[in-house]
Specification:
With 151 residues, the protein is mainly alpha-helical. Helices cover 64% and strands 0% of the residues. The chain has helices spanning 42-56, 62-75, 78-110, 116-150. The two termini are 28 Å apart. 34% of the residues are buried.
Amino acid sequence: MPANAVFCPYCAQKLPRTQGSTASRGPSISIQPAPRPNQGNLGGGVAVGFVLLMLLGWISFIGALIAGFVAGLIAGGVRRGAEVGFIAGIIGGIIAVALLSLVGTALAGLFGAGLLSALIGVGIGAIIFFLAVINTILAAIGGLVGGAIRS
């Protein structure tokens, strides 16, 4: 790269030298293009974090941390990693609570619990909701750590 090259400060493209430009008079100043931050993929981080949370969610605490960590690595950046881990945890929690509440209600109704089946489903949903909140927080912490390593 020539020492007298001039670059646009916004897009880092080389600018042509014109007769009236200040770059053609006097000593020229070389403006190096700014390095672009190593940003990852938010959507990919959420998708991978969600899939890993569903696959590793049965491992207490560590499964959510691993899912958030990998999601944070994909997202890149501390804040982005925490956001991606949190979003993946929320999506996984909503799906887990909905499915397990329905399954609990269906199983209780199948065995003739009658009106009690609705209460059993709500109870199972409340327990799973509490676990989903913990997994969401752990996934966000894992995403924060994974994003910090990537940045």
